[in-house]
Amino acid sequence: MTGQPSFPRQYARTQRFTLGAPRSYTVSPDAARIVFLRSPSGTERSQQLWVLDLDEGREFTAADPAALLAGAEEDLSPQERARRERSRESSAGIVGYATDAAVELAAFPLSGRLFVSELRAGTTRELPVPGPVVDPRPSPDGRHVAFVAEGRLRVVAVDGATTSDGDGTTDGGGTADRVLAEPDGPEVTWGLAEFIAAEEMGRYRGFWWSPDSDAVLAARVDEAPVRRWWISDPAHPDREPARIAYPAAGTANAEVSLSLFGLDGSRTDIDWDRARYPYLARVHWSAAGPPLLLVQARDQRDQRYLTVDTATGATRTVHEDEDEAWVEPFPGVPAWTPDGRLVRIADEGGARKLFVGDRPLTGAPLHVRAVLDIGEEDVLFSASGADMHDIGVYRAWFRGSGDQGGWERVGDRPYPTVSSAVRGGELTVLSQTSLERPGTQVDVVRLDPDGGEKTLATIGSYAEEPALTARPRLVLAGEREIPCAVLLPDGYAEGDGPLPVLLDPYGGPHGQRVVAAHNAHLTSQWFADQGFAVIVADGRGTPGRSPGWEKAVSRRLAEITLDDQVHALQALAGSFPLDLGRVAIRGWSFGGYLAGLAALRRPDVFHAAVVGAPVTDLRLYDTHYQERYLGHPDEEPAVYAENSLVTDEGLAGAKEPHRPMLIVHGLADDNVVVAHSLRLSSALLAAGRPHEVLPLSGVTHMTPQEQVTENLLLLQVDFLKRSLGMRA
What we know:
Blueprint: H1 6-13, E1 23-27, E2 33-38, E3 46-53, E4 58-63, H2 65-68, H3 78-86, E5 92-93, E6 98-99, E7 105-110, E8 113-118, E9 123-127, E10 133-138, E11 144-149, E12 152-157, E13 177-181, E14 188-190, H4 195-201, E15 207-209, E16 215-222, E17 228-231, E18 242-245, E19 255-262, E20 267-269, E21 279-284, E22 292-296, E23 302-308, E24 315-322, E25 335-336, E26 342-348, E27 351-356, E28 359-360, E29 367-374, E30 378-384, E31 391-397, E32 407-410, E33 417-424, E34 427-434, E35 441-447, E36 453-458, E37 473-477, E38 482-487, E39 499-503, H5 522-529, E40 533-537, H6 547-551, H7 557-572, E41 578-588, H8 590-601, E42 608-612, H9 623-630, H10 637-643, H11 648-652, E43 661-666, H12 675-686, E44 692-696, H13 706-724
Parallel strand pairs: 3-5, 39-40, 39-41, 41-42, 42-43, 43-44
Antiparallel strand pairs: 1-2, 2-3, 3-4, 6-7, 7-8, 8-9, 10-11, 11-12, 12-13, 14-16, 15-16, 16-19, 17-18, 19-20, 21-22, 22-23, 23-24, 25-26, 26-27, 27-28, 29-30, 30-31, 31-32, 33-34, 34-35, 35-36, 37-38, 38-40
Helix pairs in contact: 1-13
């Protein structure tokens, strides 16, 4: 293709402007160091390990993958590839690391090998251990590193000394590493998160060190009960299909249990009612108390907070949540305060609140999203305010001078932001984006005990500046006050006439798009600059507003989400230059499902749709996600049929006339498998409905490939303009 706009290529080469930006911060408790990842430029994928020395006021590289691999290409194991897919990690090099408690030692895998960095000196060395290594983590005292290799949980001494079993022997004739947990079956692994935990619960790890560094709590995952699916690459018929364990709605999950392994060779199995509570959603272990587990019932209407007796393996319930729709696991909780009180997030009285013990520390209008850190006197957390697009970092006190209640915002600005933070000791790394400028501002601040803050340093970014400027207008649409971003073409002036409309939503659970972050709206602005009025609407089901707003979609996923897109569009027509005779919609994943719904069920409103990686047969998506919103398919089959796009009941909602539809799907997608799009295409063909299908060879759910990302934007614009009768 020639004459390409500059933005699609830049967007693709910079991986959505994330390359070169700092991320993944760790703060040393002595306030001397900030550790983070950053690639050396805005177009280089390989992440390096960096240290900001606050005493010397300088940044330096502690580990450079290019030097450590001597220029060789990375070789990723299937387990590592799966971990990166689940966490939506598209970079290369050092994509994750873990440190000891003092933040003096970091461990990370690189091409299946284990490396450790001495962070004060900035030196890195390899530990010779069996591989391929997955998820290495130092003990809190920095003397050992535990890791997973070939499904075995292993431990190695950092100084290379022999690590003995309880009887004084080693498993390799004097080697420096040994196996803590050996799989007892061909489908068993120790120390890894199963598919459901990583994809849906936000739990990406499978083992946890004791605070005293003398034991490891590890998850045993047995995937034998899970159905096997096959992901093939039709472009390479000579290659065998990949065999994956995929727990589709209504089918068996992996069996997950926990055991405690002492470095002295002991083992204690952890006991809880796994038949009633099969989902292990969270594990927390700190010096403030015994291990904490959050376990969920299969129907996700009930979850329990359990403490573990490490001597016997027995568990005790310390709190229980119930909800008629569903319960949520939240980032950062459960956890202990230093004086042993339970920290949790729960829905109460129509608000999502932060609790310490039985006491709520927050209330409306704050909508708490995650706990970021727990200090001696306060809790650092993120939350939405009265404006859902304004996501801030807050602190609330549970004792001390601030014990009278209330909360305050950290890093307050005179404009809305999307903020996050990492705290260690008296220092906090505060990251803030806004609509005022592209990229992210990253400051190291000291928080005063009674409130207030002082900026000590700024961490630089090498990310590229976007070739265009996003200009969203954030508004509330209609009687439902649906949060929307409206973007018009650069240079559009009143009197230029109405514009073809493109709805650009995600529109579903866990996917807020209308936020006060410039780069979040870049792609929508680019589409607007091609001649569209673009609307991004966060209807019911999306996060950030209230529990009732999110849970309104229970059993009515298709009806509610599509109705809110229509409501927002029609409500905005009186305030913006919208040509309601030319309306298109595009989306990916849930947004693709929503675009398919729009074209089939509301052709009176929508005239074309780009349907990207859609979930069309809801029985083919995973248990934890689908059963949360729709129930068990064997118990509520009508709900699945009504919400699917490819069932007789689902297609019965399709109305005339036919609307142009471009279906796009990656053939290597192991999350939303390509069977979804193939079944939709077959159903459309059987119904005599014209459509186009664009298969993406070798592409997963992330579409990280540069050429795919770039040309997919251009092809969508071409399809939309053709379908709406616009000039090319």
